[in-house]
Amino acid sequence: MPVTILVGTQWGDEGKGKATDLLAARSDFVVRYQGGNNAGHTVVAAGELLKLHLIPSGILYRHVTPVIADGVVLDPGVLLQEMDALEGRGIDTSRLKISGNAHLVMPYHLEIDKVTERYLGKHRLGTTKRGIGPAYADKVARIGLRVQDLLDPSIFRQKLDVVLKEKNLLLARLYNRLPMDADKIAETYLTHGKRLEPFITDTGALLYQALREGRNVLLEGAQGTLLDIDHGTYPFVTSSSPVAGGALTGAGLGPREVDRVIGVTKAYVTRVGSGPFPTEDTGPAGRRMGERGVEVGTTTGRPRRCGWFDSVLLRYAVRVNGLTELFLTKLDVLSGMSEMRICVAYEYEGNCYDDFPPHQTIFHKAQPVYEDVEPWPEELDGVERFEDLPAAARKYVDRIAELAAVPVRHLSVGPDRRQTLAVPG
Ligand code: IMP
Q1: Which atom of ligand 1 is nearest to the CA of 39?
Q2: Which residue out of 7, 272, 298 has the highest number of ligand 1 atoms within 8 Å of its CB and is therefore the one to mutate?
Q3: pTM to 2 decimal places
Q4: What is the pLDDT of residues 163-186, one digit of tens each?
Q5: FRET pair for 425, CA 20 to 30 Å: which of 37, 163, 301, 332?
Q6: 359 catalytic, yes or no?
Q7: Around 376, how many Cα atoms within 13 Å sit in the side-chain half-sphere?
Q8: φ, ψ for residue 339 (rounded to 5)?
């Protein structure tokens, strides 16, 4: 392997958990490199469904060391809850490693996320309200508190007092909220810190050493390319860098370690929260995708907006991430559609755009140019080999690979581990 990067090619929720689960079987380390508990994936642990937001799904494999790396923002209370839930089901969490450089999501971040969204009114971003944006904003403003600060109570308190003074002014004077109590925050966080101490380490050095010993490392992205702070549909993005470049800064590794960049692509497109979505279908076709695909946010429970496959977005994701292959998910959801189409370009003011438009106004107002594709009536969930798919479904997959100019190597036709097909070629 040695380093494989796995990224979402759309607005998140592409089914990365499924792909990670498959790849984790062959990995020694599975690393979360950005985002926080705005992400979510559902795993089946000891026969029960479990929602994880921070812990990499590799935790389910005994041979895997799960890592929360430098680029993540971490809410320690949420992390401990997840660890307890896993332990309660007999899953050992003792192998978890947490970077001391990861930033902490603080209670005022949650509050500020909520009040700023309210303040923005109809211009709101539709965030997950988990404090992610405000935590990254403080990181960049250099007033963030980090996981390592939990290990030094006096430094933690000094930093908290400085920051909280400003945050309380903001909360009380601008947003008319009650100020927050430093004693209470410090007590809760430092108690969490004591429990987390055995897991905190220099994860960059750990991964570097592991690679020198020939181990395999999987860098698992949260969210997706179009939610990237630099390369996504700004401002309707998250505050971190889910793309492959972000994987390297987030994990603290260099580009020469990487030999595979896998783009996880859903067979149609979804988006939660606000922002442009050219191929959105609010009619019966989109509703059918949402119902059959159970398109409801893992973190917020919000219904996801659904639409047709968009190859312009995919080509953009190929370019931005340097994808070497695709992992296509949820093809089974599209069975039985009365008609089907793929977006091959956008049209705006008489111009045709095959590539992602250079200005946001074009993207916001673009009309998709569709190519009709042949639907298939057969259910796919029992198919075990690519060759056994209905011809129209195979053609759909081939067309996606052709439009992306990158091969589809895996294909999923259902949530179970066994419902992933290798694509020959
Ligand atoms: P934030 O990451 O909570 O600040 O939210 C910013 C935008 O990213 C909103 O549109 C969210 O719905 C979206 N977002 C954040 N995390 C995810 C995710 O895991 N899947 C899909 N959308 C997400």
Answers
A1: 19
A2: 272
A3: 0.96
A4: 999 999 999 999 999 999 999 999
A5: 332
A6: no
A7: 17
A8: -145, 155
